[in-house]
Design a protein that fits this description.
17% strand, single chain, 292 residues, alpha/beta, seven-stranded mixed sheet
């Protein structure tokens, strides 16, 4: 039986005041004290890590079941192993991230920690991916940790799509858009000749989603589309997530495939930011011919 090694790579900085989520603070155009913004990000980081742990457990159960069926049917099969890796920018950040998770108590599965280096976002991402490939992995799915509305099903689908691409000569990529012209989840197979160069902060003003797609077009690589996953950068993003987090925490009572972002929900309650409303307005199409 062939063993296929899969990495779920999370990019994250240590939640230090004034160094994370600054667009939520007066340092940029936000409302929150840097300490509160850092606390919110801390909760998002742990929520995303727990969601990913649960998603990988789901995938491992499917892999064991499939392997058992293959053995029973005397058929060749692939057994998938999954590793959760958190990459931080620089050795000091890696050390602090290890300490942060160690101090938080036990986690549902082992978590590996690395650090990435470079002079740009592209180089940092390329460095982390290179370390994963050097570790002998066959597929990598990567994302940030500011997405408390992430659903386990998207992680699961991401790897299932990657496994389709493992059977394609030359491989290909998978990606999920965010809410602001960018990408929140991206990954590819070890046989894919691809990297992040020229994608982030493109000098021509091209945003991340079309930058990835146009690179694929130029190389003739397949790209598979995942459901969009919003992240939190601005106050508007946070307003959106207040509604998403409330809905997910409630719906998790009735869906066993939803891991609720309970830490983020509690943090929002603690800071008193839970009831987002808009001013009443008349910005709708006339309905006089309908509502009568």
């Amino acid at each position: 039986m062939k063993v296929r090694r899969n990495a779920l790579l999370l990019f994250s900085k240590v939640p230090e005041p004034g160094k994370v989520k600054t667009r939520l603070t007066p340092l940029k155009d936000g409302l929150f004290d840097p300490g509160i913004a850092s606390y919110l990000y801390h909760c998002m980081l742990f929520d995303v890590a727990e969601i990913c742990c649960d998603a990988l457990a789901d995938l491992e159960r499917k892999s064991r079941d499939a392997a058992g069926d293959a053995v029973a049917g005397d058929a060749a099969s692939v057994f998938d192993e999954y590793t959760l890796i958190i990459s931080s920018p620089g050795a000091d950040q890696e050390r602090m991230m290890r300490e942060l998770f160690a101090e938080s108590g036990a986690w549902p599965r082992p978590i590996e920690f690395i650090h990435d280096e470079g002079a740009s976002f592209d180089e940092h991402y390329n460095d982390a991916f290179s370390q994963v490939w050097d570790g002998g992995f066959d597929a990598v799915l990567s994302m940030g940790c500011d997405m408390p509305a992430l659903r386990r099903s998207i992680v699961t689908e991401g790897f299932e799509r990657l496994h389709q691409l493992c059977e394609v000569p030359g491989g290909g990529i998978v990606l999920a858009p965010d809410q602001e012209l960018g990408v929140s989840v991206v990954g590819w197979t070890s046989s894919t000749d691809f990297d992040h160069s020229g994608v982030f902060y493109n000098q021509d003003g091209l945003t991340v989603l079309p930058a990835y797609i146009r690179k694929c077009k130029a190389l003739g690589l397949p790209a598979l589309y995942l459901p969009d996953v919003p992240d939190v950068d601005t106050m508007r993003d946070l307003d959106h997530h207040v509604t998403l987090v409330e809905a997910l925490v409630y719906c998790a009572q009735f869906q066993d495939d939803v891991t609720p972002p309970w830490r983020t929900a509690e943090a929002l309650r603690e800071v008193g930011y839970t009831d987002v409303r808009i001013m009443p307005n008349n910005l709708f199409d006339p309905r006089g011919e309908i509502d009568r």
